[in-house]
Amino acid sequence: MRIIVGISGASGAIMGYSLLRALREIDDMEIHLVITESGIRTFRDETDLSIEDVYRLADHVYDNADIGARIASGSFRTDGMIVIPCSMKTASGAANAYSDNLLVRAMDVCIKENRRVIVVPREMPLNKAHLRNLMLLADLGYVIIPPMLTFYNNADSVQKQVDHIVGKVLSQFDICPPSYVPWQGSEMEQQY
After folding, report:
1. What percent of the chain clears pLDDT 70, i.e. is strictly above it?
2. Quick one: DSSP state of residue 11?
């Protein structure tokens, strides 16, 4: 598989890092990474990771200003794209096809080529403009997976919650990482 990962400047950089780690464990996975300038800053502000630690998880890393990169063209075949976390600025750019950077251009290209694009929006509370843009994205074919807390899997740490979100995202590509604990059904179910 060949997947583009976009990381924008929204809070939750650790989700992008965790997704990259999960993808790196998959055989025959080719990872293309683009991080916005604000995303790089968020890694510095929220984690102890160096940006080089993040880059090392990808096979190919692109400068967000490089509109001529191969992921900016529909002729470069991929299986889709994941933007995690996705800022409201990035969501707005994608919803309105305002491709002023490589991350948004790659999203636009994947959608126009009928490829799957997963968006993990990170903002709260959401105002009407945020909700309108997310609705536009959904109408355009983007899959919206907000990073909501999950309780049915007894995720008792932030990392387990992040692993669950990453699992939900990767399940859109029929990938089930070992750390993902899907719903197994209620014990009250009766067998017939």
Report:
1. 97
2. S
pLDDT in tens, 112-129: 999 999 999 999 999 999
Phi, psi for residue 121 in degrees, rounded to 5: -75, 140
What integer pLDDT is reported at residue 185 of this predicted model?
A: 75
Residue 39: strand pairing partners: none
Query: What pTM was computed for the model?
Result: 0.94
Contact 118, 146 (CB under 8 A): no
Q: Which residue has the tokens 């126009």?
A: 112
Evaluate whether 83 touches 142 at the Cβ level (below 8 Å): no
Strand partners of residue 3: 31, 80
Tokens representing residue 17 in the block: 């890092």
Strand, helix or coil at 98?
coil
* DSSP helix/strand/coil, 6: strand
Note if the bond before 182 is cis, omega within 30 degrees: no
Residue in the block written with tokens 């933007």? 83
What's the rounded Cα separation, in Å, for the pair 119 and 106? 13
Return contacts of 39-46, CB within 8 angstroms, 24+ apart.
Answer: 39/7, 39/8, 39/9, 39/13, 41/9, 42/9, 42/10, 42/11, 42/12, 42/13, 43/13, 43/17, 46/11, 46/12, 46/13, 46/14
